[in-house]
Design goal:
By secondary structure, the protein is α/β, with parallel strands linked by helices. The chain has two domains: about 240 residues, 3-Layer(aba) Sandwich (Aspartate Aminotransferase, domain 2); about 120 residues, Alpha-Beta Complex (Aspartate Aminotransferase, domain 1). It contains twelve helices and twelve strands. The strands form three sheets. Strands 1-9-8-5-4-2-3 form a seven-stranded mixed sheet, sandwiched between helices. Strands 10-11-12 form a three-stranded antiparallel sheet. Helix 9 runs parallel beside helix 12 and helix 10 crosses helix 12. The radius of gyration is 21 Å and the shape is globular.
Amino acid sequence: MSSETKEVRMVDTITQYEHIRGEVDSVIREVLETGMYIGGPIVNRFRENLAKYLGIPHVIPCANGTDALQIALMALDLKPGDEVITSPFTFFATAEVIALLGLRPVFADIDPLTFNIDPSKIETAITPQTKCIIPVHLFGQCADMEPIMKIAEKHGIYVIEDNAQAIGSEYLFSDGRKVKGGTIGHIGCTSFYPSKNLGAYGDAGAIFTPDPIWADRLQVICNHGSHKKYYHERIGVNSRLDAIQAGILDAKLKHLDAYNQSRQQAAAWYDELLRGVQGIQIPGRASYSTHVFHQYTLRIEAGRAERDRIQQELAARKIPSMVYYPVPLHIQEAYQPYGFVAGDFPVSEKAAEEVLSLPMHSELTKEQVEYVVDNFLACIKR
């Protein structure tokens, strides 16, 4: 790396802010000058703009992505012991909210190409108690939603999309239709955690649905189960997107497609430099989804020990990297009461042994990618 090349960060929100400082500072001042910090016109403006961007009529902002998933499940009025199928290879929150509500998490293994839930494994996991499927659009591309929706329709069960990592991605149906990820199921959820492709400067999230009845129910649950202050129709939660975060997100939403294109360009540079290197697999692409590269995740075919050695050597060279995720959910201690054991979901377990994510964000330069790859290759060839 030349003396003029900036430090490589895993996520670079600082440089991103420098590029849009005027827009962000302006909208923060707007909130401060209105004095409306919870709800109000700035939150509504973001709600409307996000709905337009996603091509869906109803967006319900909330406090964070975990809340979005919990509120979506609460809206289904499920009963304790009802089963919800999801991926064992995802962030803890996806299954955490299932267990938190007294429901039973059930897992279906993943597709080794995309790391997303494998539709062919879902149907065998369905029982009379199955009420919902939560496909996770992991690392930036959609799960294969067309067969998932057909399975759900066949069995009369709900679909909640966990779109925390793939906002802006598009799913291609077999009839040629393209729709935004997160807008296909009964309810979609996302997170605006700062490192996300569309990131706030704090916690934030949103829920979306095409159905006005679902939208009203979700909004009520977000507001303590109330349409009217002090009159409560059901048990809800307090989960609101504050106006400062809404304003920041609205400013950044205008740039989201450009951010995703920058990530795709960085991924293309990585691909060009890493394709054909022995002992690794570059990220696979699904034919049915665009990839917005929330992460650029390799497989280190030699497994955990070699993966961990490479990561340690990269760190010594001041190159950040991350392992998403080192322990599949079904063998996490928290889920042992449900009776899962190692070996139940071998594709997920193999992924956890091999994955390594390299720096990925919208501000990466070609020189930085080349520097990361040069050091990565040096670590492999040690």
